[in-house]
Design a protein that fits this description.
The complex is a heterodimer of chains A (440) and B (124). Chain A is 75% helix and 0% strand. Chain A contains 20 helices and no strands. With 124 residues, chain B is an alpha/beta fold. Chain B has three helices and five strands, in the order ααβαββββ. In chain B, strand 4 and strand 5 form a beta hairpin. Classes of the chains: A mainly alpha (440), B alpha/beta (124). Chains A and B meet through helix 4, helix 5 and helix 8 of A and helix 1 and helix 3 of B.
Chain lengths: 440, 124
């Protein structure tokens, strides 16, 4: 059992990423914490997957970040001694209290809902894939016999299973407490990231509102408690927008590498993350095509996640059931059916009104106050992602009603935290918003 | 205010610890855990590279649930829904009619309060 080595591994990665963000990207604000957290879990997932791919010994895998941490620690103390490293911002007592109360509310809701092994997809997909990755000699069985295992979707990306399996291997046992702990931490990370992202621009009131929204949202907590990969994807989509806002607000240009990395890492969580990455990258590159350095930095960050995904998709994974269902004329029939458009629109709207009405309310306030949100880059990304979801439903080879009922709420869950962050930021930042100012 | 924040964080850690302890106890066991106990030891009779067919006498609505839970327990051995494999994992509910097993020889069997399993292969 290597439990202490595992703890040291994560603590080391967290420290190293946090320090590197400070040193090379000048990120001394409180946002350093959620960025380091997201970097740590994604790097742990990638490293474990690569160790399986290259048949690397597990103890060696544990040793690499420990060595990196040692090196980072040595540079850190050198910088501290020579006073070249700006101090990391600390949260005030009041903000700390607000965050602690929100974490308590979220945990209380999570504790009420969560149970061993989670909901259907958690054991039928994510934990099942993790069980294969737990066995370094036989993990490729998932892909060697992919036709026989197609019902468990071996084409799904592996960040969550890889992370779970990595910790299971360290513990030497398969325990449901690992996926539960990951789900719990990811649940807490989202509201706190929104809080810190809004607080970064001095919008403490909106930041507190955001915490209240998430803390009281039982649907949000239940989806996180289900232990699906959807909440992890929601975190990475949110963080991508938070980093994007940092870069547009005069943040260090090196954060663009981080932007590319987080957007690219969304592809390694769920297939829907690939749609997000394509849309985000297309619009980002379109917006910046006259700035080659910006483009290069973004591409450099996205390169490693993208190469890992492409290798996985082309070498290991079977074809996706939605994309590769061989249909010709049938596809035209699906696209030409007006009833399908109506059914999808109705289902999306009803789900949005039932579970995500707060986003609609915030959007109505934005429109009511004539705040120019519709022409912004984030709005274009969210709209195109929604259109992409619409197109997937339109051409689905499955029964449409079943497909809609099985996934609409989770698809909207992916963009929900980002929408809350973006709209509260826009409302708070616009001086014209008399309505909002009144509440403050 | 800092003391209050620290107290809230400590309370948060306490309820988290309590909940995790509860989740780790026998009372929190789900069907997957009881099936895990039921199928414990099956891996001794199969190689990690085996392909095993899944059969059950349960109603159609339960097939998927039992298949995926068994697949998770038996992985990295491959449990398939198709019946074209030598070895078969049969899960049966006690009160439902049994599936005939004359053509098969039993490799391993066991039961619990709700389910009975038989790992079997075609007689040669």
């Amino acid at each position: 059992m290597l439990i202490f080595a595992i703890l040291l591994y994560f603590a080391g990665l967290l420290f190293s990423t946090s320090f590197l963000l400070r040193k090379f990207a000048g990120l001394n604000s409180l946002l350093n914490y959620p960025f380091s957290f997201a970097l740590t879990i994604s790097l742990a997932g990638y490293l474990h997957y690569l160790s399986l791919l290259f048949q690397m010994d597990y103890r060696l895998l544990l040793a690499v970040p420990v060595l990196v941490t040692g090196l980072a620690g040595w540079v850190y103390f050198k910088d501290i001694k020579s006073k070249t490293l700006a101090p990391l911002q600390a949260a005030s007592n009041f903000k700390l209290l607000i965050m602690a109360v929100a974490a308590l509310a979220l945990t209380a809701g999570f504790n009420q809902y969560v149970y061993r092994w989670g909901d259907w997809d958690a054991w039928a997909i994510w934990n099942l894939h993790a069980k294969f990755l737990f066995h370094p000699e036989y993990w490729t069985n998932l892909f060697l016999y992919r036709d026989k295992l197609r019902v468990t979707h071996p084409d799904y990306p592996l960040m969550l299973p890889s992370l779970i399996a990595f910790i299971w291997r360290g513990l030497g046992t398969i325990t449901p407490l690992v996926p539960i702990t990951i789900a719990h931490l990811v649940l807490l990370a989202i509201p706190l990231t929104v809080f810190l992202g809004l607080n970064r621009f001095g919008h403490l009131f909106s930041a507190a509102i955001a915490l209240a929204i998430f803390g009281l949202d039982t649907k949000f907590i239940n989806v996180a408690g289900s232990q699906y990969a959807d909440t992890l994807l929601a975190l990475f989509i949110l963080i991508t927008f938070v980093v994007y806002k940092e870069t547009t607000a005069g943040g260090n240009a090196k954060l663009l590498v981080l932007l590319g990395f987080f957007a690219g890492s969304a592809t390694w969580i769920k297939n829907e993350g690939q749609l997000f990455f394509v849309v985000f990258s297309f619009l980002f590159l379109f917006q910046n095509f006259r700035k080659p350095v910006t483009v290069l930095r973004y591409v450099a960050g996205a390169l490693i996640p993208l190469l890992i995904l492409l290798h996985f998709k082309f070498v290991l994974a079977p074809a996706n059931d939605l994309v590769h269902a061989s249909r010709g004329a049938e596809l035209l029939d699906l696209i030409a059916s007006p009833m399908r458009y109506l059914l999808i629109a109705k289902h999306l709207l009803l789900t949005a009104f039932e579970y995500y009405w707060i986003v609609i309310l915030l959007f109505a306030i934005v429109l009511f106050n004539k705040i120019p949100f519709v022409k912004t880059f984030p709005f274009a990304v969210i709209t195109m992602v929604l259109l992409g979801y619409f197109a997937v439903y339109l051409t689905t080879p499955h029964d449409l009603t079943w497909h809609l009922e099985a996934s609409t709420d989770r698809l909207l869950h992916h963009i929900y935290p980002a929408c809350i962050y973006l709209m509260l930021l826009k409302l708070s930042a616009t001086s014209k918003s008399a309505f909002w100012a009144k509440w403050q | 205010m800092r003391r209050v924040a620290v107290l809230v964080i400590l309370y948060l850690c306490w309820i988290t610890f309590k909940n995790y302890k509860k989740l780790d106890s026998e009372h929190a066991a789900t069907e997957l855990d009881t099936m895990n106990v039921l199928l414990a030891g099956v891996e001794n009779y199969i190689s990690p590279h085996s392909n095993i067919a899944f059969q059950t006498n349960t109603p159609a609505g339960r097939h998927g649930v039992l298949y995926f839970k068994s697949a998770l327990i038996l992985a990295p051995a491959v449990l398939q829904l198709e019946s074209n494999a030598d070895t078969i994992l049969l899960l049966e509910e006690h009160q439902l009619p049994e599936i005939p097993k004359e053509q098969y020889e039993t490799i391993s069997a066991g039961d619990n309060q709700h389910l009975k399993y038989t790992l079997m292969r075609l007689k040669r």
